[in-house]
Design brief:
heterodimer; A: alpha+beta; ten-stranded mixed β-sheet; 27% strand; B: alpha+beta; 3 helices
Chain lengths: 470, 102
């Protein structure tokens, strides 16, 4: 698309990636900036990889990969004099994830010799504040959960509230060059600047939903991010890579991705409705969308909370014995019984709780569901034993107690003791803690700022000493 | 009697947040899409049987323009629980493939 094709007043957002730290190409960023980007906005988080990152408050991405991506973005944004917004810093968006990302950004700024004004947005909540909100009836469940109890709130290691665009807009209005947010909806961080600059709310939120995973809405999802151009009642979506395309199919299909409803998306201050959306190919690389609607609603922030629980130890064997393979269901049930009895008799009252799970990979390990009758035996199965117990020490000792039976249990009594193939020594593998998501609730607030705290790091005012201490 | 795998060109499953799974069934063509879009063979009871979910919470949303049906339902246990076998629910679609769809 050429400059002349553009509608005056459109707001252009450069979405460099679906996940900060996944890797960027410098020329894609230069292309987006040359195309008139008003802001660079990206998400840095997800609950996809499970509850451990929130429960521990640590990032899934390593420091070097975040630093490498930030270096490219900060260098180009500084030269172009446009801001950078990063949502859900540190994978889960805890306060520690924001601080971790801020420290990397300060180091990058020092290396580049630039002095941005950085706003950090914190949305982690204390259990006691939420207990009090809950007593006022301001926390309500989402299906399939019921009402939350004080005990559940207090048992979470970390609880974060998902921010909307309002704190980003406020930080930009106060002069931020870089905004690093805690937990934020994937869409809000991308919609913030279009909303601030007067684009239509329907197109702004819809474009943000389409662009939230970067290249996922393109024909070749692995080649870089996208550019979203948002007007009053239309938006366009274009890949950053010249050889890639955003087709009406690839764009509309993204509404299906990881969402339980392809037409309506609930956000903190309203609902995006795309039932009437129309997707048209503007040119071979760009799709134009109209008909997106935004319905404002009373403000609600979704809560995410996770806790650390029991510990697990695993052991693995391989089996090629044809007799065992021909009777896998019988073998599974006997092994389950024998190992459970072994733990009960060995540990007795010392282990008020334990769980023992056998997963037969090559048979039904992936689903754990019954195998249809008359299924032919496989050539080989891998059996993973997972023991869950209140401490790592107990889980390890239980695995050791199971060891002779797990590795040498015959299919039936009276057969010479077999040895199944175990690949490691020591055979038991301490796996660490089990983490759980506990909350699927919303907290009702007066607006998008009530539960958010903003802190500033202005490097242009920072003394040399502070910089050296970073 | 056709199976799901015979009338769909693509089927996928994915977590939709920690508490929900969503399955996308893309039908081969307009004709089979129209024929099976509302079939009871993909009703809540089938989803309950295959995934142990509450049938009252199963959502089924057809998207005519893409000739696809989205079926979303709560996980029997939240993502990452101690008995987790499929963190992204990325293989959950497989047990639908041989369902007889009429």
């Amino acid at each position: 698309m050429t400059q002349a094709d553009r509608t005056p007043g459109d707001v252009t957002v450069l979405v460099p990636t679906g996940m900060l730290g996944a890797g960027l190409q410098h020329e894609h960023i230069r292309y987006g900036i040359a195309a008139g980007a008003h802001v660079i906005a990206a998400d840095s988080g997800s609950t996809d990889s499970g509850p451990s990152y929130l429960a521990r408050g640590v990032s899934k991405m390593n420091r070097e990969s975040i630093k490498r991506d930030l270096e490219i973005l900060m260098d180009e944004a500084f030269k172009a004099k446009i801001p950078i917004l990063i949502g859900t810093c540190g994978t889960s968006g805890t306060d520690s994830g924001v601080d971790w990302t801020r420290d990397i950004a300060i180091e990058v700024a020092r290396n580049l010799g630039i002095t941005p004004k950085i706003a950090c947005l914190y949305s982690e909540q204390t259990p006691s504040d939420l207990v009090s909100k809950n007593r006022q009836g301001k926390i309500t469940p989402l299906p399939p959960m019921g009402p939350v109890t004080d005990e559940v709130l207090e048992s979470c290691e970390h609880i974060v509230a998902l921010m909307g665009p309002e704190p980003y807009i406020a930080a930009l209005q106060a002069g931020a060059d870089i905004v690093l947010g805690g937990r934020t909806t994937d869409t809000a961080v991308l919609a913030a600047v279009p909303l601030l600059m007067g684009a239509g709310a329907g197109p702004a939120w819809h474009a943000a939903k389409i662009a939230e995973c970067g290249g996922q809405c393109t024909v070749n999802p692995r080649t870089g991010g996208v550019l979203m151009r948002v007007g009053k009642d239309v938006f366009e979506i274009e890949p950053l890579d010249l050889d890639n395309q955003c087709s009406p199919e690839s764009v509309s299909a993204h509404m299906l991705y990881e969402s339980s409803d392809p037409y309506r998306l609930t956000e903190p201050g309203g609902v995006l409705d795309v039932t009437g959306a129309d997707y048209q190919r503007l040119n071979p690389r760009v799709t134009r969308v109209t008909g997106s609607r935004w319905e404002p609603m009373p403000y609600k922030m979704k809560l995410e909370g996770a806790r650390a629980g029991n510990f697990q130890t695993i052991m693995i064997i391989g089996i090629e014995d044809p007799e065992v393979l021909a009777h896998l269901n019988e073998f599974h049930d006997t092994l389950q019984r024998v190992l459970t009895d072994r733990i009960r008799t060995t540990f007795g009252d010392e282990a008020p709780f334990f769980d023992l799970s056998l997963r037969f990979y090559g048979w039904n390990g992936t689903s754990g569901r019954p195998v249809p009758a008359n299924t032919p035996p496989p050539r080989d199965v891998g059996v993973m034993l997972v023991i869950t117990a209140p401490t790592q020490d107990l889980a390890d000792r239980m695995a050791k107690a199971c060891n002779p039976y797990f590795f040498h249990m015959p299919l039936r009594p009276g057969i010479e003791l077999p040895s199944y193939a175990f690949p490691f020594t020591p055979a038991e593998i301490p796996r660490g803690q089990v983490y759980e998501f506990l909350l699927n609730h919303v907290v009702h607030t007066k607006d998008g700022l009530e539960l958010v705290r903003t802190q500033w790091t202005d490097l242009s005012n920072a003394s040399r000493k502070v910089l050296e201490n970073v | 009697m056709s199976k799901v795998r015979e009338v769909c060109r693509h089927i996928r499953s994915k977590n939709a947040g920690p508490f929900w799974v969503t399955i996308d069934l893309f039908f081969r063509n307009e004709e089979v899409y129209r024929r099976y879009r509302d079939t009871p063979a993909l009703g809540p009871e089938v989803i309950e049987r295959l995934y142990g979910t509450d049938p009252g919470l199963v959502k089924r949303l057809p998207v005519d323009a893409l000739r696809m049906v989205k079926i979303s339902f709560p996980r029997a246990k939240p993502q990452g629980w101690m008995g987790e076998r499929d963190m992204h629910a990325g293989q959950h679609y497989a047990r639908l493939l041989d369902v007889e769809i009429g």
